[in-house]
Inverse folding.
């Protein structure tokens, strides 16, 4: 009887928890549904009142019209892919080596230096816009790819995340590798990194999303339309397309699609990293 009386409150709390999660999921997904449904509507349905939640006949040609409306879409997508992929590769390499040094090597002032690294995370990015722009202008990089890539190849958060993950690798494994003649570089690339694929995938995913969605910095350091990225192109597209809201949403869906595909590819690794990463150290 006692166990039965205790099971009822547990079932009730489970039901409430699931209802809360379902409500949260609906709130999070509603803007995406509205974007996609509007992208498939006619112009009249997109501005209809009361709101029309479902398109009568899906207008798939809206996506082709949105692509043809902006002649530089191909260039915008190329720039975003090139900048995002290059930044991801460089950040993963740099962050992995720095995180390994902080997690597995001993040197003077290690904790102090790492603490200073973490302190930089408290500085708002907007504060650094003008100094970074002046620096890049002195290098002659404005309106060039290095201006879009170099300032973002080092991430303190990525170093922190990988450092915490590297702490989970047993010290005995490192000692055994060193007894077999391995050095730090070989141990990092042949043992540590293969064991850290979920954390590396998480770093890569977050950096790709951040780089793909960047708007203010590319707008600041580029002058010619040919050097702009997808988000800048989407902004100018909305100004040129006028009140054609269904075409706006079709263009926004096209801009979102690469991020969604990358997330679906890396989602298992991302969830594994969240589940395994600890806060040791």
């Amino acid at each position: 009887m006692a166990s039965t009386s205790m099971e009822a409150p547990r079932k009730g709390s489970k039901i409430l928890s699931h209802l809360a999660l379902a409500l949260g999921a609906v709130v999070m997904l509603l803007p995406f549904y509205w974007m996609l449904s509007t992208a498939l509507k006619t112009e009249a349905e997109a501005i209809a009142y009361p709101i029309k939640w479902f398109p009568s006949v899906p207008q798939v040609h809206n996506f082709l019209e949105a692509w043809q409306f902006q002649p530089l879409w191909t260039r915008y997508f190329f720039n975003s892919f090139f900048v995002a992929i290059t930044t991801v590769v460089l950040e993963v390499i740099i962050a992995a080596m720095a995180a390994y040094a902080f997690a597995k090597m001993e040197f003077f002032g290690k904790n102090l230096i790492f603490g200073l690294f973490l302190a930089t995370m408290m500085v708002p990015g907007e504060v650094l816009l003008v100094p970074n722009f002046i620096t890049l202008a002195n290098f002659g990089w404005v309106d060039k790819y290095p201006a879009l890539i170099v300032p973002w190849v080092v991430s303190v958060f990525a170093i922190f995340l990988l450092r915490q993950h590297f702490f989970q690798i047993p010290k005995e494994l490192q000692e055994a590798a060193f007894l077999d003649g391995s050095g730090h570089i070989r141990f990092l690339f042949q043992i540590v990194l293969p064991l850290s694929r979920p954390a590396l995938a998480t770093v890569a995913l977050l950096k790709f999303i951040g780089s793909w969605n960047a708007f203010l910095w590319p707008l600041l350091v580029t002058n010619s339309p040919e050097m702009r990225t997808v988000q800048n192109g989407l902004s100018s597209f909305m100004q040129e397309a006028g009140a054609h809201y269904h075409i706006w949403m079709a263009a926004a869906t096209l801009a979102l699609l690469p991020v969604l595909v990358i997330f679906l590819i890396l989602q298992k690794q991302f969830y594994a990293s969240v589940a395994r990463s600890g806060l040791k150290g």
